[in-house]
Write a structure and sequence with these properties.
The chain is an all-alpha fold. The chain has a domain at 33-107. The protein is 70% helix and 0% strand. Helix 1 (2-25) runs antiparallel to helix 4 and helix 2 crosses helix 3. The longest helix has 33 residues, at 110-142. The chain is globular. The chain crosses the membrane at residues 114-139, 151-169, 181-206, 212-229, 241-258, 333-350, 357-375, 395-411, 431-449, 455-476. Its EC number is 2.4.1.-.
Length: 498
């Protein structure tokens, strides 16, 4: 009976998550009918066109058939392979004109739109959904300090699958973040289940799909290294994981590794690090963008200097979290470290986008049972930080609807009982209310009030300042929580069990 009830809960949550994705995909997307470059939808379609008609050695190289100034590939090879597979299986077989070389730019027929949307949904169903389910069960067996009842399983799965930020970006704006994020969740679940080689391979695949997965790399490195150092043959354990990672990278990068000439000509690495765009582009809730209101970083420093400054501050900010896991690796500490390290990159790394908030939100969703309030707060301000982008995409209706659904489900499916209530009714309620009033006001003001001509991006700046302040408060909280997780007695006990 318990198994049947759990299966029913998981099925209902999953089907509802699919339904929301389908409904959002019926709406507009990035760059719809807006030449000359359209938007992210066109970028993904164009990559299918290029990978279908140009040999792999030319995918990242400027040529007559591959104009890099028009949505050139700027993600690792696994994204290119994914584009090839989607183009071949979905579009080329049914609407070949939608991926025809040169002549298909801006192609937007109803059938091709349906097929393009289907590629995103199928990616979710094949990778993100199974990974989320795998994590929920691994978490219940190995990590959870909350009662692993049926309601808790359903609620935690809902928090991962119904994250409105991910649904809006992938199924509204149009991207494939569910692939790299799904591979990362699978890697976390495998490691928690003590299948560390499998986890290392999955995370290597995530890195080879989107380079922003490196946001999680210090947490993986700290936890796995800390575990290996406590085993009987630490060097052997480290080598096993190292070979798994190197082997995965070698397979993915094979077309560019058979000769130094091919590797240099492909220019893959230069495409993955677009430093020419500056330390930040649009308004985003990162340290560099917010502080630029006072310190004009781009005027004061060269690109080379900014790369060094950004690199150094990023390392310094994630180092405490990583060092903690090397010294006292624990399953819960690992998940907290994923959140803390990813926020270090979001705050301080070079060229952060609005959509990058999806990376810290992933481990926040994995911590939903332990940190229900922190997760919901980050979702709210993660949504707000992407609000200007989603307004430009005409996704306001979808934005409001998904946010309301999330609040309703978060409030009604109380899977963690007293933990959630204790967090929600805290003494900080007055400050929280004030922050929410500011957030609601900015939502409305951005839509109906014209900014002063002298400051055309005033409201974007105010939104990002508010979001940055909330993110910073939560990061301080979660870093403190990570360092308080292990007492000396618990550390020594956990070492015996490794």
């Amino acid at each position: 009976m318990v198994v049947s009830s759990t299966t029913t809960t998981v099925t209902v949550v999953s089907l509802f998550a699919v339904l929301l994705r389908v409904l959002v995909s019926l709406g507009p997307y990035s760059g719809e009918s807006t030449p000359p470059k359209y938007g992210d939808y066109e970028a993904q379609r164009h990559w299918m066109e290029i990978t279908l008609h140009v040999p792999p050695s030319q995918w990242y190289r400027n040529s007559t058939h591959n104009d890099l100034s028009y949505w050139g590939l700027d993600y690792p090879p696994l994204t290119a392979y994914q584009s090839y597979a989607h183009g071949l299986l979905f579009l080329n077989s049914s609407v070949p004109e939608s991926v025809a070389l040169h002549s298909s730019r801006g192609y937007e027929s109803p059938k091709s739109k349906l097929l393009m949307r289907s590629t995103v949904l199928s990616s979710d169903l094949l990778i993100f959904f199974p990974s989320a389910l795998y994590f929920v069960y691994a978490y219940r067996l190995h990590v959870s300090s909350v009662n692993g009842n049926n309601a808790a399983i359903g609620w935690q799965l809902a928090m991962i699958l119904l994250n409105p930020c991910l649904i809006l970006i992938d199924h509204g704006h149009f991207q494939y973040n569910s692939i790299s994020l799904g591979l990362t969740i699978g890697a976390v679940a495998a490691i928690l289940s003590r299948h560390e080689i499998v986890g290392s391979v999955l995370f290597s695949l995530a890195l080879n799909h989107k380079q922003m997965s490196a946001y999680f790399a210090p947490a993986f490195l700290g936890y796995l290294l800390g575990k290996c150092l406590r085993r009987k043959h630490p060097i052997f354990e480290i080598c096993k994981l190292g070979f798994a990672v190197l082997g995965t990278f070698a397979v993915i990068w094979f077309p560019y590794l058979h000769s130094l000439e091919a590797f240099s000509e492909a220019s893959v690495l230069s495409r993955l690090a677009p430093f020419e765009r500056g330390i930040y582009e649009d308004y985003v809730a990162s340290f560099w963008c917010i502080s630029s209101i006072i310190i004009k970083w781009k005027n004061l420093f060269s690109v080379q200097s900014l790369k060094i400054i950004s690199f150094s501050t990023t390392i310094l900010s994630f180092l405490p979290s990583m060092v903690h896991q090397i010294g006292a690796p624990s399953d819960m500490g690992f998940i907290y470290s994923l959140l803390n390290c990813s926020f270090s990159f979001y705050f301080f790394s070079y060229q952060v986008h609005e959509k990058s908030i999806l990376l810290p939100l992933l481990p926040a969703s994995l911590l939903a049972l332990e940190e229900p309030f922190a997760f919901s707060w980050l979702v709210h301000y993660g949504m707000l930080s992407m609000y200007p982008l989603l307004c430009r995409d005409n996704l306001i209706l979808q934005y409001v609807t998904l946010l309301l659904f999330f609040v309703l489900i978060y409030s009604s499916l109380d899977g963690s009982g007293p933990v959630m209530k204790r967090d929600f009714f805290s003494i900080r309620k007055a400050l929280m209310a004030l922050s929410l009033i500011c957030s609601m006001s900015l939502h409305l003001v951005y839509l109906v009030v014209q900014p002063p001509k002298k400051y055309p991006f005033l409201f974007e700046a105010l939104i990002m300042i508010l979001c940055f302040s909330q993110f910073l408060i939560m990061v301080i909280h979660t870093n403190i929580k990570q360092w308080r997780l292990e007492t000396p007695s618990r550390i020594s006990k956990s070492r015996k069990n490794i």
